Amino acid sequence: MSTDPHCPNCNYEYPYPSGDLMICPECNHEWNPAESAADADAQKASLAIQGIQSQLSELTSEGNTLWRVRVGPYNSVEESNPVREKLNGMGIKSTVIKSSKS
After folding, report:
1. How far, in Å, CA of 31 to CA of 29, rounded?
2. Cα angle for residues 39, 43, 44 (degrees, 5° grid)
């Protein structure tokens, strides 16, 4: 069983490595799994320049590694609105996630 990520283009289960790239034999898609982490880190840096603190979180779903850039936490939706408006002005879609309090 392969531990490699599924193809992000067609979700094929068995892509193979070729140097730094992964290649999907099903649809011939090529990608560099490290780029998504670098993209997330660049987004975090861009937000920092705008005065928005953020954190990166890694998630594996269906064999694919996804990176989330998160801001917060905030005590209420209202408290998050100024940052959400700033993100919207930057062309970044934001999603409010309610966390469970411990």
Report:
1. 7
2. 120
Q: How far apart are CA 5 and CA 11, in angstroms?
A: 9
Question: Per the structure block, which two tokens stand in for 39?
Answer: 């993209």
- Say how far apart CA 60 and CA 37 lie, in whole Å: 12
pLDDT digits (tens, 9 = 90+) for 27-76: 998 888 777 788 889 999 999 999 999 999 887 766 667 788 899 899 99
Copy the structure tokens of residue 24.
């999907």
Strands 30-31 and 55-61: unpaired
Q: What are the Cα distances from residue 76, in Å, to 2, 10, 16, 98?
A: 43, 38, 45, 9
Q: Are 15 and 25 in contact (CB under 8 A)?
A: yes
pTM, entire model: 0.62
